[in-house]
Amino acid sequence: MAQKAVQFEQRLEFGMEGHRRFDLVRWAIADQTLNAYYLVEGTKRSYLKGVLFVKGKHEYFPIPIQEILNSQKDGQKTLTQNPGY
């Protein structure tokens, strides 16, 4: 119950500051929350129709290929692409 109160308080406190997605990912509820949002809003906004948050992929951003190629040490790449990209 306390966790729900903290989540609600942070939602109010940081509204319109761009932190919400990161909070949802940190709390491991991004897939349920965002997919519920997309389901409702997809009926109202055509650009959200069929959008889906995929757990295990969309928590991370892709690493630019140039950064992976430039990350070599002793001839071995030190960076690998995030899962799903």
Uncertain regions spanning at least 5 consecutive residues: none
Q: How far is it from the N-terminal to the C-terminal residue, by CA?
A: 36 Å
Beta-strand percentage range: under 5%
Percent range of helical residues: 40-55%
- Oligomeric category: single chain
Give the helix tally.
4
The major sheet is characterized as: 2 strands, antiparallel
Derived structural class: mainly alpha
Strand order of the largest sheet: 1-2
Shape: extended
Reading the helices and strands in chain order gives: HHHHEE
The count of strands amounts to: 2
Mean pLDDT: 92
* Rg over CA atoms: 17 Å
Walk me through the structure.
The chain has 85 residues and is mainly α. The chain contains four helices and two strands. It has helices spanning 2-13, 20-26, 30-41, 65-69, and strands at residues 72-73, 76-77. A two-stranded antiparallel sheet has the order 1-2. The termini are far apart. The model has no long low-confidence stretch (mean pLDDT 92).
Quick structural summary:
The chain is mainly alpha-helical. Helices cover 42% and strands 5% of the residues.
Throw out a few tags for this protein.
single chain; 85 residues; mainly alpha; two-stranded antiparallel sheet; 4 helices
